[in-house]
Specification:
Blueprint lengths: L1 E5 L20 H14 L2 H17 L4 E6 L11 H13 L2 E8 L21 H12 L6 E7 L7 H14 L3 E5 L3 H11 L3 H8 L6 E5 L5 H9 L3 E4 L1 H6 L18 E3 L9 H16 L12 H16 L15 E4 L14 H8 L5 E6 L2 E4 L3
Parallel strand pairs: 1-2, 2-3, 3-4, 4-5, 5-6, 6-7, 7-8
Antiparallel strand pairs: 9-10, 10-11
The structure holds zinc ion.
């Protein structure tokens, strides 16, 4: 299973950000708590959280993580001390990692960085590529790179254009947070006269290398145009729910197949891909007051969801994985078919019992790049 979008260090917020003494919170109040963690964390703490998050992923059957990495520095000076720690932690845990190396330059559209964002900055284009090339030399066989612009809030349009073009030239995936909140859409409309996705549609030469993360508040016409040009979308249902972001209007069914979709654990408040997958389906059921949203030609929901969590994720990260076939990485998991959580499913119903009825308990072993590991360690 492929987790396309994670910020491992945010695992440190689990259990600490769901009390609301001053009344209702939002993405923006959560972000303050995240900045507080990002500002005070040291190298040991950062490495520990990466280990913890990646180990938990492996135990939940996730064989690859797309780590959208923007917390680069261990202090106010640009030292990029955290970059290598991500690679090291993934290697030690044994999970495949695609380092989605994030550019971060502004504190909002046309705004300077605020103090909570200083450890994120990649400062200039030169500095970004220099550091990326340095990291490229340190990758193991289970690691690869992707390019990321944090968001239209954090990266100027001209820089997004350059990053995207260079990603295409290098044959790398390109990821960006897009339209997670209404405020981002409104601010972008005021600044650029276009929505973030409208901007992406108009300004970038789109193909299948671009994965838009969230699209919670995307206009249907923007999304349709984006998908028509091969764009991909990563949904993070548990994070979007935890942060109170909203429910995206996802196109599926007769009009569109599901191949553009993938999922991610994002803030890692809970690490369980099955839960992300079923809430991808359930969110749309609640929104539309109907059952059976992500169905294949035979009407099978679980098969489609599992496809999103495997093949869809691998495609978004440019990996030969997510399916058992010659030439692909030997990344897979085994399920304990005698586990009470999947019983008494008939063989044809096992996938639905697994995806809709279990968390991580029925996962027995995982194999990454041909190396077996006990998921329950
Ligand atoms: Zn994110």
């Amino acid at each position: 299973m492929v987790n396309v979008h994670s910020h491992a260090f945010q695992r440190g917020l689990r259990g600490q950000v769901d009390r609301f003494p001053r009344g209702a919170g939002s993405f923006w109040t959560w972000r303050e708590a995240m900045y507080e963690l990002a500002t005070k964390i040291d190298t040991d703490g950062f490495a520990r959280l990466c280990h913890q998050a990646f180990r938990e992923m492996l135990a939940s059957g996730i064989t690859t993580v797309g780590e959208f990495h923007y917390l680069h520095h261990s202090g106010p000076v640009n030292n990029y001390a955290f970059d290598e720690l991500v690679l090291q932690a993934a290697d030690e845990v044994g999970i495949r990692l695609v380092l989605l190396y994030a550019s971060y330059e502004t504190g909002g559209l046309g705004q300077p960085l605020d103090p909570g964002q200083r450890r994120f900055t990649t400062r200039s284009s030169d500095e970004y590529w220099r550091q990326l090339d340095r990291l490229a030399d340190q990758l193991t066989v289970r690691q690869s790179l992707g390019i990321a612009a944090h968001s239209v809030r954090a990266v100027p349009l001209e820089q997004i254009r350059i990053l995207h073009e260079e990603a295409k030239r290098r044959g790398l995936p390109f990821h960006m947070h897009i339209e997670e909140t209404k405020r981002e859409v409104e601010e972008c409309l005021a600044f650029h006269g276009k929505t973030p996705l409208g901007l992406v549609n108009d300004e970038l030469e789109l193909d299948a290398n671009l994965t838009a993360v969230h699209c919670t508040h995307s206009r249907p016409e923007d999304l349709a145009r984006f998908l028509d040009h091969g764009g991909r979308v990563c949904i993070c249902p548990l994070t979007e729910a935890n942060l109170g972001d909203g429910l995206p209007a996802i196109e599926v069914g007769a009009a569109r197949n599901h191949e553009y979709l993938s999922v991610g654990t994002d803030c890692n408040a809970r690490i369980c891909l099955n839960e992300e997958l079923r809430w991808l389906e359930y969110g749309q059921r609640l929104r539309r007051e109907t059952r059976g949203i992500f169905t294949d030609v035979e009407g099978d929901v679980a098969a489609t969801l599992f496809d999103v969590g495997t093949r869809g994720g691998a495609a978004a990260l440019f990996l030969e994985a997510g399916a058992i076939r010659p030439g692909a990485w030997a990344d897979f998991l085994t399920i304990d078919l005698a586990h009470p959580a999947v019983l008494p499913a008939a063989p044809d119903d096992l996938m639905a019992a697994f995806v809709l009825g279990t968390g991580t308990e029925a996962i027995d072993q995982v194999c990454v790049g041909g190396r077996w590991q006990d998921a329950r360690q």
